[in-house]
Amino acid sequence: MCNSILAKMVHMKCRSKVYPFSNINRIVFPDSLVDWSQPFPDYSPEEYNSPGLKGKPYADPDLDDPNFHPKWNSLDGNINRKSHIGDYAVLNGRPLNPEGRTGIKGRGVLGRWGPNHAADPIVTRWKMDNGTKILHTVTKLAILQFCAIQRHDTHEWAVPGGMVDPGEQVSITLKREFMEEAMNSLQSSPGQLEKNKQMVEKFFNTGEIVYKGYVDDPRNTDNAWIETVAANFHDEDGTSVGQFELNAGDDAKNVKWMDIDKNLNLYASHSQLIQYVVKLRGAHW
Length: 285
Known about the structure:
Residues 125-280 form the Nudix hydrolase domain. It comes from Agrilus planipennis. InterPro entries: NUDIX_hydrolase-like_dom_sf (IPR015797), NUDIX_hydrolase_dom (IPR000086), NUDT9 (IPR039989). Pfam families: NUDIX (PF00293), NUDT9_N (PF25969). The protein is of the alpha+beta class. It has a domain at 117-281: Nucleoside Triphosphate Pyrophosphohydrolase (Alpha-Beta Complex), CATH 3.90.79. The chain is 13% helix and 25% strand. It is built from 3 helices and 15 strands. The chain starts with 46 loop residues before the first strand and ends with a helix. 36% of the residues are buried.
């Protein structure tokens, strides 16, 4: 069984001045006006919908498509339009970001209007020397390492996560993303691929959910946002996945076992996800 830790995530990175992969500027405004309940009569953000979404199988149609009738806050066929944090408001046919204003409307580069569901496998092991845990010189706590990938798009280090396919169970997404991004299962030989799959299958049978909810992602807009289920899969003695040679694949530029401490600077809200794991494991931070 997995234990879940539900927590509120700070809404900051999705208010950066320029929207990612575009030249569209967000409206800049004080923190006091983020919440939709706060009057902001002059709020009139620019709309941006990436032209690259047209015709993509993972993307919703435009909201003005006469054949598009999404069921907000519901399981819409095999598309999950529910939010982990409760029902979101819908205004004039548009879902509203439950964490408030972002300075840009539309769906940006995200495929779905409303919640876009992701899964983030946080795979960890202890930093060891000849089978003995290495303790931090100051805190005297064991140092935890996690499987980190470097993204091709932003070059930032991150957890090897990805979007949940329609109708796919989150547990399947977690395993798939780790295999594709950290172990390069797409390019492994058939024999090695089968061996890796068996090892990962066994390893991913147990895990603990450390976060379920909204993600402060720079791609978020007023009408589309990312939510995730982040789960920790820990190799206590380093004899399972922790012994694998990691190979970058899919949209990962590089991959490595990265030491965890409070100075981590990771993509989106991944540093906060890592901190939940540190608390769970009683590791150095």
